[in-house]
Design brief:
Elements: H1 8-20, H2 31-41, H3 47-69, H4 79-84, H5 105-114, H6 119-123, H7 136-140, H8 144-156, H9 161-168, H10 172-184
Helix pairs in contact: 8-9, 9-10
Length: 200
C-alpha cells in the first residue's frame, strides 16, 4: 500500500518477498484516500499526523480484506518498537497477532539471516516511509543496537539508569530518553481507560 513517500526499493522488496513466499498480493496506492481526507479536514499539514493517518488508512484496508475473507491480520512489530511505542496506535500497531513481537530488532536481523533474507534487505535503513527521508534510528535518536541493549538491561534485568549508562558508556540522558519513551507509550498497548461507575 505505497504512497508518494514510499521508497521505490521498499515496494520492489515487498513484491519480491511475497513472490518468494508464494503469498497472494495486490498493490493499492493510498494517496487518493489520503488526499481526500486532507481536503475534507482542511487542517494545516503536519508530518507526524499525516504519517499516522497513512498507517491508519493501511490498517483500514487490511482489516477490510481480513473481514471480507475471514483472515487474521498479522503485525510486523518487534519488541524494540513495541516497548518504546514506535508504532501508530490503531495503525500499524493494530493486528490480531505479532509473530516477532517478543524479538528485539537486533534479534530480527539474526532471524532474517537464518531465513536467508537478502543481505540488501537486512542492511538497508529501517524506515516506515511515512515522510520523505525518514528513518527509524534518526527518529528514535539512536541505533537499534544501542536501543536494544538499554531495553534489555532496563526491562529484563531491572538495572537502574545510572548503571546502564555506565555499563554502556553512554550518558544518563540517553538512557532516560528511552525510559521516558517506554513510560509515555504504555497507553498504546492497553485497553482504553473506562471510568468506574459510582453507586449512589
Amino acid at each position: 500500500m505505497p504512497s508518494t513517500t514510499t521508497p521505490n526499493e521498499d515496494k520492489i522488496h515487498g513484491i519480491e518477498i511475497a513472490k518468494y513466499l508464494d503469498i497472494e498480493h495486490k498493490e493499492i496506492g493510498i494517496d487518493g484516500i489520503l488526499n481526500e481526507f486532507l481536503d475534507v479536514t482542511q487542517l494545516e499539514e503536519n508530518n507526524l499526523a499525516i504519517g499516522n493517518l497513512k498507517a491508519r488508512i493501511r490498517m483500514s484496508i487490511i482489516y477490510y480484506y481480513a473481514n471480507a475473507k475471514n483472515y487474521l491480520v498479522i503485525g510486523t512489530g518487534n519488541k524494540s518498537e513495541i516497548l518504546i511505542g514506535y508504532f501508530t496506535k490503531h495503525g500499524d500497531g493494530a493486528c490480531d497477532m505479532e509473530p516477532i513481537g517478543d524479538l528485539y530488532k537486533t534479534e530480527v536481523y539474526e532471524l532474517s539471516k537464518l531465513m536467508n533474507v537478502k543481505q540488501e534487505i537486512i542492511e538497508k535503513p529501517p524506515r516506515a516511509g511515512l515522510w520523505n527521508n525518514q528513518t527509524d534510528e534518526a527518529e528514535i535518536g539512536m541505533s537499534y543496537y544501542l536501543l536494544d541493549q538499554i531495553l534489555y538491561l532496563y526491562t529484563e534485568k531491572d538495572i537502574k539508569n545510572t548503571e546502564i549508562a555506565e555499563k554502556l558508556d553512554i550518558s544518563v540522558d540517553d538512557v532516560d530518553m528511552i525510559i521516558n519513551k517506554i513510560i509515555r507509550s504504555e497507553h498504546k498497548s492497553k485497553v482504553p481507560e473506562s471510568p468506574k461507575k459510582t453507586i449512589l
